[in-house]
Amino acid sequence: MKHLSLLALLPSGAAVSTATGPHAVPGAPDLAAYVLSHERYDAAENAPSARKDYKNVHVADVMTDEYVFPLGETGKSIVLSGYQIAAGFLAERAADAWLELARQQHVENGGADSDGTRHVPDPAEADQLMDRAMESAERILAPFETAPIASLFETHYRGAREFLRLSWEGLPEDLVPKSRRPAVVLKTATDPAPAAAAAAAQDYDPYGLEGTSDYDVDKPLAYREKIGPFLLTMTYRHEYPQVDDERLGTAFAVFHEAGTDIVAAAVELKLVKVPPIHSSADLVYVLDTYSGEMLSLALAATEALGPERLCSVFNTHRVVYISTWEVRKQWRGQGLGVALLREALQRLPADPDGRPDALCVAPEPYQTEARYLGQLPPALRAEIDVPAQRLTRHLTEWLDRADLPNVKTHFFIPMAKHEGIGSAGENARLIDRIMESEA
Predict the structure, then answer these.
(1) pTM across the whole model
(2) Are strands 318-327 and 263-273 parallel, antiparallel or unpaired?
């Protein structure tokens, strides 16, 4: 039988991992979040004691703190340092991976899972596992020891393969005809007469059934124009054009520097219109047929609005949900994100049934790695929520004074609580509660 090295399954280097799933290589945020999910212990008080704040707390501080570590289902516990808990996490992960590989190898060699064979790693390697796991944890965390702990859970651009770049690569020149701009762009106060009237008739055709000389009906409607120092490129597509009553559209807009083609900001909007609903259960049922993201939107909107206002908003508005919205770091704080959002909202195709828009914003996913939120202590969660709260205030003030004729209302949703977990797990339990309460 081929030798399977247990120690070789320990991660070897430092990383800020963005991968998910049981086989993803853990990074510093994974280890820190796992450590922080345990109850902090204060040796001076000889009792558990959570930190009151994390404002000046660095990664090294968290990893040298002590925590209460439960011993399975025995009801007993021991006190370990953060580094020891992180090492135990890596050791357990390596042992599970080794056992799975050993079972696979056993089956490939003609054995069976049910034949009672015990798979045991090399005793010498097993003796070294915890020591080597500690070294591995220290290597992974070393580059971040002096960084504020909250910085590990912020959204990062990594490897130049972020949302902005990937989305821009999806917009080749042949998707951007010179014409087919919406009428709102062409209307001007200085020339309100025949040209503007003619342009009004050339507004968006949401299904791509007219103006086929201008663009291919199999491609998304798209156009480009220069705005200040940036080029704005915008595309729009109906996701389910064959469905009359339930419509989901996607609009994508990007700013890039006109001279260099460097991406500066991007926003992706989901345009959601549903048939008449009478309860949050109706909304969950309708949007769950689209995608996991739309199901998460239904659950988060239910939590934010409550059943009564939820029905009112979705029955009378087309909901414009900011699915992704990012500004590259060198342009942050200069108002570029709001400027792009304004340009995109002004250029959305009008709803054929005349519904006004309700802008739906989820601030958290743009600031935080949502998959870690449930593991973090409340005090750290509160500090990580500060940028989202600042964004909420900023957008509320901006929307109150912004001249966006079709945006009649707006609301904020806790999308991070529901994002990415589909119709299983906690979402499934929430769906059950919604269905039961409205049966």
Answers:
(1) 0.64
(2) antiparallel
Whether pLDDT at 271 is above 90: yes
Q: Are 164 and 265 contacting, i.e. CB atoms less than 8 angstroms apart?
A: yes
Q: What is the C-alpha separation between 276 and 283, in angstroms, rounded?
A: 9
The string of DSSP codes covering 277-305 is -SSHHHHHHHHHTT-HHHHHHHHHHHHHH
Cα 429 to Cα 403: distance, rounded to the nearest angstrom:
41
Closest CA to 40 of 26, 23, 27, 54: 54
Cα–Cα dist 404/117, whole Å = 69
Residue 39 contacts residue 80 (beta carbons within 8 Å):
no
- Phi, psi (5° rounding) for residue 146? -95, 5
Please state, in angstroms and rounded to a whole number, the distance separating the CA atoms of residues 424 and 421.
6
Question: Looking at this protein, which amino acid is placed at residue 421?
Answer: I
pLDDT of residue 225: 78
Q: How far apart are alpha carbons 210 and 195 in whole angstroms? A: 20
What is the total residue count of the chain?
439
Distances (CA, A) of 318 to 34, 145, 271: 40, 47, 7
Enter the DSSP assignment of 234: E
Of 345 and 220, the one with more pLDDT: 345
Residues 119, 121, 127, 132, CA torsion sign: negative
Q: Which residues is 79 bridged to in the sheet?
A: 68
Predicted pLDDT at 32: 94
- Lowest average pLDDT, out of 9-18, 114-123, 265-274, 339-348, goes to 9-18
Q: Flag whether pLDDT at 418 surpasses 80.
A: no
Domain ranges of the chain: 7-149, 163-437
Give the SS3 label for residue 50. Answer: coil
Q: What does the mean pLDDT of the chain come to?
A: 77
- For 385-410, give one letter per residue: b (16+ CB within 10 A) or e: bebbeebeeebeeebeebebebbebb
Q: Is the pLDDT of residue 98 over 60?
A: yes
Per-residue pLDDT at 16 exceeds 90:
no
Weakest-pLDDT range from 118-122, 137-141, 394-398:
118-122
> If residue 390 lies in a helix (H) or strand (E), which one and from where to where?
helix 386-401
d(CA 35, CA 311): 41
Taking residues 1-14, what's their average pLDDT? 76
Check if the beta carbon of residue 372 is closer than 8 Å to that of residue 29. yes
